[in-house]
Amino acid sequence: MLAKDIKPGSIVVSDGAPCIIENVTVQSPSARGGATIYKFRARNLVTKNKIDLNLKGTEGLEDADFQKREVTVMYADTESVHLMDTETYEQYAIALADVENEMKFVREGFEGLLALIYNGECVGVTLPAMVELKITQCDPGVKGNSATGRTKPLQMETGLQIHGPEYLKEGEIVKVDTRTSEFLGRA
User: Fold this and answer.
1) With 80 as the cut, is the pLDDT of residue 71 above it?
2) Domain with residues 130-186, CATH architecture
């Protein structure tokens, strides 16, 4: 995969281990004929260490060879989250600290969670771009506030807190972007 095709969330091999790209910075030289430099901040999925990679536009990295398996969350304890493959019923455990951000969007009965399996071990999970969550707590809306662009804090059923329009009420189901934690609309 060429450097220009690598985006945040891509999983590539660096130094023989799978890494997920977290951030991409592009430096274009001002001189003619200068090579564009792509700077990547990645996290090694096995050791969990952060690494920095610098590539020219013509260089590239190899795609990681891993499996994506659809899983459901069985339970979570103080140290790890326990997942079960929906097809083979195989069980995986992953450290809670490694998937803490993703678990803010996962509720009971959640569908669409994919486990990243590398050499028979779960090294991470991926979420769909959008999830539907129920509002469990918010301030009541005032009549006539729907025309303004103001927002209010919304507490979701998973504990996640986002901001949304003032006309929303408790009990409504809304769409939330999993990459930015932003309100997208009513479900």
Assistant:
1) yes
2) Beta Barrel (2.40)
CB atoms within 10 A of CB 94: 21
* Residue among 62, 70, 51, 73 at smallest CA distance from 116: 70
Location of structure tokens 């995986």: 92
In this structure, are residues 142 and 169 in contact, taking their beta carbons and an 8 Å threshold? no
pLDDT of residue 154: 93
Contact 161/104 with Cβ under 8 angstroms? no
User: For the chain, how many residues are written?
Assistant: 187
Residue 116: both structure tokens together: 């990243």
Q: How many Å apart are CA 66 and CA 115, to the nearest integer? A: 10
More confident residue, 11 or 175: 175
How much is the pTM?
Answer: 0.70
46: nearest Cα among 75, 71, 11, 70: 11
Architecture of domain 67-126: Beta Barrel (2.40)
Q: What are phi and psi of 155, to 5 degrees?
A: -95, 125
Q: Tell me what pLDDT residue 174 has.
A: 94
Which CATH fold topology does 3-63 show? SH3 type barrels. (2.30.30)
